[in-house]
Amino acid sequence: MDKNKGLPLKRLLKNLKAHSKTIILIFVLSLIGNVFYVAAPILVGQAVDNIIEAGNVNFDFFVKIIAVLGVLYIINALCVWLYTSLAVSVAAKVTNTIRQQAFEKLINLPLKSIDNMERGDILSRFTADCDQISDAVTQMLNQFFSGIVIILAALGFMLYISPIVTLVIVIAVPIMFLVSRTVSKKSAQKLLKMQKIMGTLSGYAEEHIRGARVVKAFNFEQTAQNRFEKINQELYKTGIKANFIAALSNPSTRLVNYFSYSLVGLVGGLSAIYMGLSIGMLTSFLTYATLFSRPFNEFTSVMGQIISGLSGAFRMFEIIDIELIRSDAKKSKQNISVKGDFDFENVSFSYTPQKELIQDFNLKVSQGQKVAIVGPTGAGKTTMINLLMRFYDVNSGEIFVDKINIQDIEKAEYRKNFGMVLQDTWLFKGTVMQNIAFGKPDASIEEVQAAAKKAHAHSFIEKLPNGYNTIIDENGENLSLGQKQMLTIARAMLIIPSVLILDEATSSIDILTEQKITQAFREIMQGRTSFIIAHRLSTIKDADIIIVMNQGQIVEQGTHESLLEKDGFYAMLYNSQFDKKLSI
Q: Where residue 329 falls among pLDDT bands split at 50, 70, 90?
């Protein structure tokens, strides 16, 4: 990360610029409210000076002072309420902008970058860290403006009353700053570490909650609990250290204040005796000394909160600052309509440099062909689809569609020609209608129902409480695995793409329904290039080409019948699925 980009305070101030008018209003309200508030003690001092002796009190002056004080405090309370509300509003807007920028970056990142991130840590950044940013911005706006006004106003009144006594207070300020700076610098590192561990803890919890069935099935509860306790204990120890150091800031500065306050009392008392300082003015001065020190104390008391917010901002800016690799550059071709001729020429790819996967891969596919990709686990089948869809880019070699290098086509423009059904179903919280129409939001109910009928999902959808308006829980938890898969198939059938990709698309569906859906797929595939990854080899007998992969290479290629005649690797895979010796 760039050093300048790594300064969260500077970045936050840049975000605050967009709300400069509101911030100016906050300052004006803070100025009015706090000047009126700081003006009160000198009136109290004048009232004290009008208590001459027992039975000799100027009650008329007292009534006037009380009336003026009432007006001052009412105006102050109104201004504080207004500028605090505005500060909260600005903080919410700034946090909203940062969250939006981070999500926009995250959603546009290549899968390679997202695969290297912990889900729980990302969730922690968007929730806990953003809340801390909001709190920090609110505190900064409130404490900074009101603190400056109170300090300057109190200083002015103190100089007016007694410049000599004021000197005692002013000397204590650099000492307070030095103490506060030393403590906050040390606590910042601990707080950032604490937030990182919190992200790890969130990720671990999210992972095991999502996989609760597997955890219970393998009696993993105690092991999971032990590991959670280990991370939680590390968070506890780091949090104790971080909060202990952060907590030192306020009492340290208060200790300096107490010493200076004691000196003020001593010097003020001597001034009253030898320099004619009235008791009322000494009373006012002591109040101003307290007011002058209060912003420093308040600021140090929320220093930990502000540092946590800045640490949270740093973590959010880490996402925002990830550089997007713009391979869709000046040569991007707009409004392209893919016909379906594909050429893989000398393609090599690996997810990590240490482990080679696909080496010197070559393949030609003509428009309208139904291509089945088979092979053992880890052979490179899904990787080939990832490269075809440009979820990952090749390390070397080229992939052409209709004689155009796919890296010369804008990703969004290229991918709109594909329909994809994965074994790993994904549904979001929304209606059945919204989930099916995910790739075509403007689809009519008639179009959605037609797609659902082709996917043989219409009958079970009609039986749901609200039909197509039934709300699906997060990740489709209120549906069976087969039902979820039928909805994703309906989603692909709705858009009727130029190229269809099926990755174990019917793996969770019963055999009878699978046969019906396969027939529907055959109708859609007519004239369209299709890529099918299948483990049940009986489902791809009618493929125009069967690509047999092993260890990132094509080891065989041909039709079902020709490959069986070769009695090679494909024949071995096919026969193993029907070997009675292997049956349970």
A: very low
d(CA 260, CA 439): 69
Pairing relationship of beta strands 418-421 and 499-503 according to DSSP bridges: parallel
pLDDT grade, residue 74 (50/70/90)?
very high
* Residue pair 371/365 in contact by the 8 Å Cβ criterion: yes
Q: Decide: 388 and 338 in contact? Cβ < 8 Å.
A: no
Domains and CATH numbers, the chain: 8-320 (1.20.1560.10), 331-417+497-584 (3.40.50.300), 426-490 (no CATH)
Alpha-helix runs per DSSP H in 389-534: 411-415, 432-436, 445-454, 458-462, 481-495, 511-525
Average pLDDT over residues 356-372: 85
Write down the mean pLDDT value for the chain. Answer: 80
The alpha carbon of 63 is separated from its chain's Cα centroid by a whole number of angstroms, namely 58
Check residue 5 and give its pLDDT: 43
Which of these, 172, 157, 183, lies nearest to 244 by C-alpha position? 183
What is the rounded CA–CA span in Å between residue 520 and residue 77? Answer: 71
**C-alpha angle 230/231/233, rounded to 5°?**
65
Residue 175 is predicted with a pLDDT of: 73
- What Rg value do the Cα atoms of the chain yield, rounded? 35
Backbone angles phi, psi at 24, to 5 degrees: -65, -40
The pTM of the whole model exceeds 0.90: no
3 state SS for 249-273: HHHHHHHHHHHHHHHHHHHHHHHHH
The answer to whether residue 213 scores a pLDDT higher than 70 is: no
Where does residue 78 rank: exposed (0-12), middle (13-18), buried (19+ CB within 10 A)? Answer: middle
